[in-house]
Specification:
Keywords: DNA-binding, Transcription, Transcription regulation. This protein has about 190 residues and is mainly alpha-helical. Helices cover about 75% and strands about 0% of the residues.
Length: about 190
């Protein structure tokens, strides 16, 4: 692709491809320019630099994960809804590991836009848990517990640590999610007593 048709959207699409191939933060503006068939200086007519590109990649990852998580909103049964949400989280992490890593790394960045945007993948958990538990502090604690469990599981799975004996990792994942659902429902029942 030459300069004609080069714009921020085209640059970001190429950056996402590079992230998926090479890893988050493992490519340069020079490599991005080569992918697009332009000189590196041409990119700066459309983006300010690699940090802007990394931000856009992270925002794309957040948008995709948020869409997947929101599928759970349509299920009225809490355990089923949490299962759908957890499956969506796991599927995203396994099918787009570098975008997932981008989201995880963004949390520690100094970029205020990204810190604010990360709330978009926390919010679906808060909404779902809030169906069962009304106390805000408990809801936040449960959301953190669930997200930590999901992240820990997919991180171990990505590294191959969950393959050494039966049951398979999918069975263990389901067991974990069902146990988390019981925890949330128990907290909701305590409130109603």
């Amino acid at each position: 692709m030459g300069r004609r048709g080069l714009n921020a959207e085209v640059i970001m699409e190429a950056a996402i491809e590079l992230v998926e191939e090479k890893g988050y933060r493992n490519f340069s503006m020079r490599e991005l320019a080569a992918r697009l068939g332009v000189q590196p200086a041409s990119l700066y007519n459309h983006v300010n630099g690699i940090e802007e590109v990394n931000t856009a990649v992270g925002m794309h990852g957040i948008t995709e994960l948020e869409k997947a998580l929101k599928q759970a909103y349509t299920y009225s049964d809490f355990t089923e809804a949490l299962g759908i949400m957890a499956d969506a989280y796991r599927k995203f992490a396994m099918e787009s590991p570098e975008l997932y890593q981008a989201i995880i790394e963004m949390r520690t960045s100094e970029n205020e836009e990204l810190k604010h945007a990360i709330q978009r993948i926390i919010h679906p958990f808060l909404v779902l848990i809030g169906r069962e538990v009304k106390d805000h502090e408990k809801t936040v604690n449960l959301q953190r517990t669930i997200r930590s469990a999901l992240h820990g599981f997919v991180s171990l799975e990505q590294e191959g640590y969950l393959t050494y004996e039966n049951p398979d990792s999918s069975t263990s994942f389901r067991y974990m999610v069902e146990s988390l659902a019981v925890l949330v429902m128990r907290e909701g029942e305590k409130e109603r007593l």
